[in-house]
């Protein structure tokens, strides 16, 4: 199928993050006065952009280590609240709460795969919330199944949970998590409840973000700093690549578990996934996007009357392009925020209508103007043709597209939902042909070097979906494959 006429799931033409993790642990071994459920729901709501297919919360750390309270729901955090289950959680005596929002890649999107996942061991309940993707999970699952383990979900995260639960029989919570993270390969930002403690861990390349904070009576673990801000928590620090952090009633402490670590944070977190008000590994996401706009102008200048961003993804880079070029910045498109991913379009006409419904051109702003239209990425190319056509239909005399990232030409194996390679538009057409297909007067992408320059100037990022060079090997198939 021509990717410019691709299925409706592709209609927002973005890569999708897999998950967000948020957790709290009481600073003393007694239940705090602030309701942990409310704190975690606040954090998860701030992380909603990282996953909209299911959400969940568990409470643990009770006097009885086997006791666990669970509420999960398909859909947004608001659905979890509306379901009423979360209000029925018995929080009396809980000292740890784990939350998760999910967008599925491995395993289906049903509520049975919703996290946090829970296992019961001789030492009590263990729970896990995971953002990332394990590249050797299929092989590990087969080995564990041969050893008698039974899995309830198709999720790679359950493999990690199983490994922790098995080690916990003989070892401490920290040692059990350490054993598990040394066995798996891939990306993980984890929050684990084990033995009444909250344990956070980040893979040796730090591909997915994870940070710790403090809120009154709680230690907090979060995928992004924006969720700390949302609940009024103080940012303490990022979890280092390869680090495991243990928080309990005694305090919080981290230790590096991997002998060889090399930071390769996902560059797409800065380009699109993370919220602009987050700071990852000391780099502000908004600032990185603005700098990518500066760099884009340096690499691909153009004469125009108006710089404008595709709402909302292209706006910070458009502000940067405008600053660097001196061309005024303004709005050209209005986005209908109520056309969501849940809009089911059964046939091609409906799909085209959905794309058309999502944006409208501001005629009074664009008539007679030469426009630079900035976005953060083009994945399948489904939206861009419609936007160019709307701008020209509204009277724009020229539309020049500038993309604040290199062409996405390779899949991601680390927790991002990437289309098949043949559906990636940059894999099918050269830039001139792509410009012709979307109806643009010119089209340019940021270079990989320019992206790295905009992020921090030093290489410490995964750029695999642009270059095909990854921080670690591709997924290992199961033994029958
Ligand atoms: S391949 Fe690397 S840069 Fe691209 S989305 Fe995946 S982790 Fe991020």
UniProtKB/TrEMBL annotation:
<feature type="binding site">
    <location>
        <position position="376"/>
    </location>
    <ligand>
        <name>Mg(2+)</name>
    </ligand>
</feature>
<keyword id="KW-0328">Glycosyltransferase</keyword>
<keyword id="KW-0315">Glutamine amidotransferase</keyword>
<feature type="binding site">
    <location>
        <position position="465"/>
    </location>
    <ligand>
        <name>[4Fe-4S] cluster</name>
    </ligand>
</feature>
<dbReference type="Pfam" id="PF13537">
    <property type="entry name" value="GATase_7"/>
</dbReference>
<keyword id="KW-0460">Magnesium</keyword>
<feature type="binding site">
    <location>
        <position position="266"/>
    </location>
    <ligand>
        <name>[4Fe-4S] cluster</name>
    </ligand>
</feature>
<dbReference type="InterPro" id="IPR035584">
    <property type="entry name" value="PurF_N"/>
</dbReference>
<dbReference type="GO" id="GO:0004044">
    <property type="term" value="F:amidophosphoribosyltransferase activity"/>
</dbReference>
<dbReference type="InterPro" id="IPR000836">
    <property type="entry name" value="PRTase_dom"/>
</dbReference>
<dbReference type="Pfam" id="PF00156">
    <property type="entry name" value="Pribosyltran"/>
</dbReference>
<feature type="binding site">
    <location>
        <position position="412"/>
    </location>
    <ligand>
        <name>[4Fe-4S] cluster</name>
    </ligand>
</feature>
<dbReference type="GO" id="GO:0000287">
    <property type="term" value="F:magnesium ion binding"/>
</dbReference>
<dbReference type="GO" id="GO:0009113">
    <property type="term" value="P:purine nucleobase biosynthetic process"/>
</dbReference>
<dbReference type="GO" id="GO:0006189">
    <property type="term" value="P:'de novo' IMP biosynthetic process"/>
</dbReference>
<dbReference type="GO" id="GO:0051539">
    <property type="term" value="F:4 iron, 4 sulfur cluster binding"/>
</dbReference>
<dbReference type="InterPro" id="IPR017932">
    <property type="entry name" value="GATase_2_dom"/>
</dbReference>
<comment type="function">
    <text>Catalyzes the formation of phosphoribosylamine from phosphoribosylpyrophosphate (PRPP) and glutamine.</text>
</comment>
<feature type="active site" description="Nucleophile">
    <location>
        <position position="19"/>
    </location>
</feature>
<keyword id="KW-0658">Purine biosynthesis</keyword>
<dbReference type="InterPro" id="IPR029057">
    <property type="entry name" value="PRTase-like"/>
</dbReference>
<feature type="binding site">
    <location>
        <position position="375"/>
    </location>
    <ligand>
        <name>Mg(2+)</name>
    </ligand>
</feature>
<keyword id="KW-0808">Transferase</keyword>
<protein>
    <recommendedName>
        <fullName>Amidophosphoribosyltransferase</fullName>
        <ecNumber>2.4.2.14</ecNumber>
    </recommendedName>
</protein>
<keyword id="KW-0004">4Fe-4S</keyword>
<comment type="pathway">
    <text>Purine metabolism; IMP biosynthesis via de novo pathway; N(1)-(5-phospho-D-ribosyl)glycinamide from 5-phospho-alpha-D-ribose 1-diphosphate: step 1/2.</text>
</comment>
<keyword id="KW-0479">Metal-binding</keyword>
<keyword id="KW-0411">Iron-sulfur</keyword>
<dbReference type="InterPro" id="IPR029055">
    <property type="entry name" value="Ntn_hydrolases_N"/>
</dbReference>
<feature type="binding site">
    <location>
        <position position="462"/>
    </location>
    <ligand>
        <name>[4Fe-4S] cluster</name>
    </ligand>
</feature>
<comment type="similarity">
    <text>In the C-terminal section; belongs to the purine/pyrimidine phosphoribosyltransferase family.</text>
</comment>
<dbReference type="InterPro" id="IPR005854">
    <property type="entry name" value="PurF"/>
</dbReference>
<feature type="binding site">
    <location>
        <position position="313"/>
    </location>
    <ligand>
        <name>Mg(2+)</name>
    </ligand>
</feature>
<feature type="domain" description="Glutamine amidotransferase type-2">
    <location>
        <begin position="19"/>
        <end position="250"/>
    </location>
</feature>
<keyword id="KW-0408">Iron</keyword>
